[in-house]
Structures are given as C-alpha cells and as structure tokens.
Specification:
The chain is mainly β. It contains 5 helices and 15 strands.
Length: about 325
C-alpha cells in the first residue's frame, strides 16, 4: 500500500512538471467574470465582492480543488473599473498548488448611446509550490525516515505575468476577448528545466432577451452565452444559457467540441453537461452547478464536479442613480 502511495504521488508530480500547464476553469464562468476577463472589472453598480469554489473529479485520488475571491469597483468620475483577484488551486492529493494575486484596470468608452467598449490590463504575481509533507519518496520507505535524499526539486517558484482584454456591450448583447500569460513565464520546480506557462486566449459573449409573462409587471429574462478558450495544445467551448424568473435562475451548459476537433482516440470530443441553479435577490447572488461527465472519464469514476458561487454588490445613493443610466454586461452565471 505504501509503495502504491509514493509511486502515484511521484508520478503525478512529474507529469505536472512536463505536461502543458493549464489554468483552472469554472463552469459558472460569468460568476467569476473578472477571472474570465479583466475588462469585467467595474461592471457592477459600484462595488462587488465575489467568491467561487470548484471541486472537480472528487472520486479520483488527486483531483482538483479551486478557489477564487475577487473585489472590483467602478469609479464614475474616472470612467474606470479597478479589480483585485486572488486565485488558488490544488492538485495531486494537494501536493502541488498555485496561488496568484492580480491587479486589474479597465476604462469605459461610450461608442453610441447604448454601446460601450472596455479595454483592460491585468498584472499577476504567482507562487507555485509543492507540499513535501504530502509526498513519500522511495528512500524514505527504505530507511524508514521522514527525510529524503531527493534533489532537484525547489520548494516553490515565483513569477510575474500580465494579460489584457476588451469587452463590448449594449443593452442586449456583449462580446469580449481576453489574453492571459502574454509573457509566458517559466513555472518549473526543477532546477535547469524550462517549463513555460502557455498563453491563454478566450472569446466569450451572449445575448439577453427580456419579456413579460401575461400582465405581470416583472420582466423575465432568457440568456444564451458561450465561452471558447485555448491554451497550449488544448481548447474547449462552453455553450448554454439560463432562464431568470426572480429570484430563481435555472440553466444548462454543455462543454465540448464534437465534430470540430479530433481528440485522436476515436471518441466523440465532448466533456460534460452542467446544471445550474441560482438565487438572485437584490445585491445578493448565489449559484450552484454540477457537471455530469459524458467523456470516457465516466461520471461514476470521476464524481463529476461541484461548484458554488457567491456575490454581493453595494453602492451609495449617488452611484445607484448613476448606475441606472449605465449599460452593464448582464450575465450572472
């Protein structure tokens, strides 16, 4: 049993070093909007706090857990949005972890009466490290000692990177593109090994349809949206939408690229379906989603993925009045 443990953990760590690294992902990507694109910083009434948690493939040893916390603020006098983003993920039984902090800035231009464009920049500092207390090396088992003679691994590596994005939006639609890791920093934990973090490119957008049911004064909304991203050798498409009838929101998402890209294994290139349920009351938003795995990594083996999102917005009286005249990208989850 001990032999299996150290073999698995060491194999996971080595694979993580030589594989093309990828950023963490969220099914509720619009609930983590500033993580998706820094141009979404400041797209609230004034100030916003949000948090996201994802537990991916919980039935597989060494699955992934991801956390995201963000604060963003809009300044009407400067026509500018400011954001602070903290992200953390753990993989390989918790041995390998990444923590990053980002500063974001977006400027809002009015193109027409109801159309705006928001270019943005992001600067990020990242720490990547290994928790050696969760690893067992062969020499530790042989000598029955907690110390190890293994060399070449660093306790951690730190690096800076930067990115940017732009979003165009109107009363009913929005479209954005973002680029992260433009400088492709080195993130290797092995001395002398060059392992770069590939640039991540994404395109995302959506359309919001408002309507009334019967003689009700309350508007209902139907939102359709997408998010395509590419990083290194990998790309994917999230497509779906949700229906909003205050205060509840229900939605369905699909992730995959069937017929558009071959995975080289003779199987249909799709990953999962996700069900979303949300609650939106005033300044509060809460969302939960569950991913049903439909790839060869079956749901019974992977356990799917659980995700929770929280958001709170607030503003003073003056900015609440100003917000009524602003056109804000409208996706919630």
């Amino acid at each position: 049993m001990k032999n299996w443990r150290w073999t698995y953990l060491l194999f996971s760590l080595v694979i993580a070093q030589f594989a093309h690294a990828q950023d963490m992902q969220f099914t509720q990507f619009y609930a983590a909007s500033t993580y998706l694109n820094p141009a979404f910083a400041g797209t609230s009434v004034q100030s916003r706090l949000s948090a996201n948690y994802r537990n991916q493939w919980p039935s597989i040893p060494g699955g992934f857990t991801m956390y995201n916390a963000a604060f963003d603020h809009f300044s009407p006098k400067l026509n500018s949005g400011f954001g602070l983003l903290e992200s953390h993920d753990r993989a390989g039984s918790g041995a390998l972890a990444n923590t990053s902090i980002s500063l974001q800035y977006a400027y809002e231009f009015r193109i027409t009466r109801n159309t705006f464009i928001r270019p943005a920049l992001q600067f990020t500092y990242t720490n990547r490290h290994v928790d050696f207390s969760k690893l067992v090396f062969p020499d530790q088992l042989v000598r029955n000692d907690e110390t190890t003679l293994e060399e070449g691994l660093n306790n951690g590596v730190n690096f800076f990177d930067f990115g940017g994005g732009v979003v165009m939006n109107s009363t009913r639609f929005w479209f954005g593109v973002a680029a992260h890791h433009l400088n492709q920093p080195t993130e290797s934990l092995y001395g002398g090994l060059i392992a770069t973090l590939p640039m991540k490119l994404s395109a995302h957008g959506g359309y919001k349809l408002a309507f009334r049911k019967g003689y009700s004064k309350k508007k209902k909304y139907a939102v359709v949206a997408f998010n395509y991203k590419s990083q290194g050798l990998y790309d994917q498409l999230d497509l779906g939408g949700y229906y909003e009838f205050d205060p509840l929101i229900v939605g369905l998402w699909y992730r995959g690229l069937p017929g558009l890209k071959s995975n080289g294994y003779g199987h249909i290139n799709h990953d999962s379906f996700a069900l979303i349920i949300g609650w939106n009351q005033g300044p509060y938003k809460i969302g939960y989603s569950y991913d049903f795995t439909v790839s060869q990594l079956s749901i019974g083996a992977s356990g799917g993925a659980h995700e929770i999102s929280l958001s709170y917005e607030w503003a003073n009286k003056r900015n609440k009045r100003l917000a009524k005249r602003r056109i804000i990208p409208c996706a919630k989850f």
